[in-house]
Amino acid sequence: MNRVSIQAEDFDPAVELAALEASGGGGVASFTGIVRGEGGLVALELEHYPAMTMAQVERIVAEASDRWPLLGVRVIHRFGRLEPGERIVFVGTASRHRTAALEACAFLIDWLKSRAPFWKKEHFADRTEWVEARVEDDAKAESWKR
Amino acid sequence: MADLTLVYFAWVREAIGRDEERVERPAADATVATLIAALAARGGGYAEAFARPDRLRAALDQHFVPMDSPIGDAKELAIFPPVTGG
């Protein structure tokens, strides 16, 4: 079963993993993204495009399900103000075998980074700065193109 | 035909000073790029936000589109910087 949540609240990866483990496959892979506290970062502010985000992430999940034989996909992406150490994103995949679960998980996080309508703003003690998209992230997403 | 809704995100929204507005539907042959050029000509925050079209991305009715896409009968055009989620 596939499920997507776009939310301000935190989530519990253990609960999400348990649900994926119950999907009947032989393998579960996951990625949890955490706010890094580098360079004196006080907080990260995530803005998104509410009318588009859910549909777009569901399209990305559908693409993963087309490419790999998955039994379950779970995506959670938070928005709003997040402090260093807080979870931002969770991607979990369940499949009969490890390769599909691992590859689909990597694909999903790469595409979320460059194809989901979120924007990060960094807050420091004395200034704020919009995060620039990284060429490497685009290249990673492109590498999954077929 | 009905007006076109424009929505802005991130530093585009901040430069313009609003997150949404309605504009008169552009001519039938208008593309995202030609509309952005027309908006930039308003000056002020618009000129600032749209100074570098290569730094902008767009979505028509909640689907990402290239800048040379015709606006056609879309209801909503979103203009924003490259996304940085994940």
Query: Which fold name fills CATH's third level, the topology of chain B?
Result: Ubiquitin-like (UB roll)
Q: Proportion of β residues of chain A?
A: 35-45%
Q: Give the overall shape of chain A.
A: globular
Number of helices of chain B: 3
Rg calculated over all Cα atoms of chain A: 15 Å
Question: Order of strands across the widest beta sheet of chain B?
Answer: 2-1-5-3-4
Structural class of chain A: alpha+beta
Q: Please tell me the total number of domains of chain A.
A: 1
Largest sheet composition of chain A:
4 strands, mixed
Instruction: Please give the share of residues in helix of chain B.
Output: 25-40%
β-strand percent of chain B reads 15-25%
CATH top-level class of chain A? Alpha Beta
InterPro entries (chain B): Beta-grasp_dom_sf, Mopterin_synth/thiamin_S_b, ThiS/MoaD-like
Organism (chain B): Sphingobium fuliginis (strain ATCC 27551)
Protein name (chain B): Molybdopterin synthase sulfur carrier subunit
Pfam families (chain B): ThiS (PF02597)
SSE blueprint:
The complex is a heterodimer of chains A (146) and B (86).
Chain A: E1 2-7, H1 13-21, E2 27-34, E3 41-48, H2 50-67, E4 70-78, E5 80-82, E6 87-95, H3 98-115, E7 118-124, E8 128-130, H4 135-143
Parallel strand pairs in A: 1-4
Antiparallel strand pairs in A: 2-6, 3-5, 3-7, 4-6, 7-8
Helix pairs in contact in A: 2-3, 3-4
Chain B: E1 4-8, H1 10-16, E2 20-23, H2 32-40, H3 44-49, E3 57-60, E4 63-65, E5 76-80
Parallel strand pairs in B: 1-5
Antiparallel strand pairs in B: 1-2, 3-4, 3-5
